[in-house]
Amino acid sequence: MISCPIFCEELNLKMDFNRSFTSNLGSATSAKSQQSMFKALRRLHGQNLESRGLHDMTEAFQSFVTRARFFSIGKLRRTWSHSAAEFMKYRRLLPMLLADGEAFDGGETDDFDASIAFQHTSRDDRKIVVSNISSRVTQSQLQSFFSQYGKVTSCILPREEKKTSIFGTLPKHSKNCGTATITFKKAEHAERAKNASPEELKFYDQLMVVSAYVSKKRGGKGLVLSDDVGSREDTPLSRASSTQSLASGSEQLFNLGSIPEKVLKRVISFLPIHETIRIERVNKKFMEQSIKSWELINRLVLARETVFSKQRPMRTNHLKAILTRAGAHLRSLDMSGVVHLLDDRRAVKMIATCCPNLVELDISGTHAQAEALEELGESLTHLKQLSYRGMETTGDKAFYFLLKNCGHSLKFADLRNSKRLHGRSFRLFGSQLESLYLDGSSKIDEMAFEDLCTSCGGLKELRINECYKITDENLSMIARRMEDLSILTLCGDGFKNLTSAGLIHISHMKNITELALDYNTLVNDELLISISAGLPLLSSLSLANAGDDASITAEGVSAIKNLSGLTQLDVSSLAAVNSAVMTQLGALKKLEIIQLRNCTYLGDEGVRTMLQMPNLRHTDLSGSILVSNDSIQEFIKAFPSGPKLPPITLVVGGTAADASKLSVRGSRVVVDFSDYSTIVAMQTSQTSGSKFVVGSVSDCEDNSDDDFEVLTAQRSFYIDAVCGEEDSPITDDGKLAEWAEKEARSLGLIKD
């Protein structure tokens, strides 16, 4: 039952509308009459919404009022699902309602919609997107870095999926994705960061790129619009907000049909994949330009498409729709990491049929039969980079057929964690191969390494972490045949067929610039001395958790000082690293990154030695329990801030540092209180049962009581050193070192 006042109000509104509409018919050019008509429409529709639809209005009239509100006064509420088709359907109402296209007073538009649009724009102006971020940067470090431009209210730095590894090359903490979103308190702070010079944005030896924030609804295909956000205000059609006006009070309507085809094609290329396909339904022109827009896309990373998730995984028909449009233009296709329920055989055949010009291909996670992989290899005649990692159930036969026709032309191959790969297909590689990743492929045998040395003499990068079947003869052959080898990683503690004498062959590889031997128990003083004398070009050396306390002494670590070109050094968890050794390493003037995690014998004097390294950019002291506030404060003061001077990161988590007593004012040192010194157990099928690490849990029941006592002693030493209290604490560094050594001897950690 409708009350009398409501009925009278409705009647008055209808009469008001009829009068305004009649006046429009008599005088089509009267702007005042148009304003009156729109006022009547808004009042009538608003009254209907307030009374929850109780007015006796016909469905046709209600539909007309709704369309007039949302399509005539320029407040088109666009949604990416059906906006384009709906707009093209109802836009013919605009000339009728605006009296043949005449402009109307912008002040008559909805103030609520305008306020919402302003709030969205204001919020976006305070945000920036930072890309090309080093994988070593943490969220707290990034936030501290950009706080120099203004107060940061939010810093979002996504990380990759957590991986389990025993090596320093794959730390416990996963790497970041390389792109972050930072929100400042004020818009001028964001502008200050955008206007920063490239040198000011250099962090961890990488030039970060700052760009304007673009909402996900406006991004596409992993691209970011490079235009200034401020220019959106002058554009009639904009992706800045779903409430952005189609027209303003001083401009005429914008005709979508007048957009040049080249511009439309460029705009469509920035849309997400599923929207690019969906926009083909608008009209013929949009369909043609949508199809042509794929010409501008030569690299496709499917994991970036947010439309595919656990609730809605990618299926075979989705892949077919994408590759039939983009396949002919693609040069790079990455299918790793995408959530899918693909028919692997059909998916591989689609790639072979639709993408003949691929140069880079990553099909990690896509299982297929040998016949389908053979067809894929035959069709990709231009392939230079291939990634097929994590295929734990794929055997030698599948790899053989995959590499049968394209292996000879490859320059890069990533076959990590292929547990059933024996390496019979390595003879198919050609002399053009430059980089080969085999980490975690533990069944690659001696014959495979011989084939590799015979076929790939020009190899420059070889990563064979956890390839435990390599022998001394293989390493000798690599040193003799691969003269151009510059990067070698040989991490792991289960090399049963390799000896310390065999590792000496590494010192004969004269062109090595990067060497990693983390957790390798065969490393000793003799090897370190040979490397220091035989590898003059070495710039990066990683020895985290290598050897043991007896095999690596101060003599071997001190020999590293002869590597004058060294820029990166990791000697984490080496008991031989102390203040005296660090004094010797002070001769490394080019050192930029040094990792000293869990160096429990390193004191303040060793930290002061690093003040002589002018190029230092990152120092990690986490877990070095003897380092105190005194040396850390001296380190901070030794590097004052200045124009175009890069920041220096100092990690002090797990040390004796007190954050409340440190001052970083006037310094370019960024102090990070995170602790990266967590010691994890070595959990691999090839490791020996007698290997114990602090905090580890062994699954073997045959471990002796002696091993358990050693573990208990190590834990007691750490706990007493960190948590122990004495009535008269030792302040002298010399006496403190003597006390630590005495305690270690009494616990059996140091033997004479």
Describe this entry's structure for a reader.
The protein has 752 residues and is an alpha/beta fold. It has a domain at 121-159 and 175-212: Alpha-Beta Plaits (2-Layer Sandwich), CATH 3.30.70. The chain contains 25 helices and 21 strands. The strands form 3 sheets. Strands 7-8-9-10-11-12-13-14-15-16-17-18-19-20-21 form a 15-stranded parallel sheet, covered by helices on one side. The chain has a 4-stranded antiparallel sheet with strand order 2-3-1-6. A two-stranded antiparallel sheet has the order 4-5. Helix 12 links the parallel strand 7 (299-301) and strand 8. Helix 16 runs parallel beside helix 17.
Give a nutshell description of this structure.
The protein has 752 residues and is of the alpha/beta class. 34% of the residues lie in helices and 9% in strands.
Distance between termini? 101 Å
Report the major sheet.
15 strands, parallel
Task: Report the helical percentage.
Answer: 25-40%
Strand content: 5-15%
Task: Walk across the major sheet and give the strand order.
Answer: 7-8-9-10-11-12-13-14-15-16-17-18-19-20-21
Coarse shape: flat
Region (Disordered): 225-244
InterPro entries: F-box_dom, Leu-rich_rpt_Cys-con_subtyp, LRR_dom_sf, Nucleotide-bd_a/b_plait_sf, RBD_domain_sf, RRM_dom
Domain F-box: 253-300
Domain RRM: 126-215
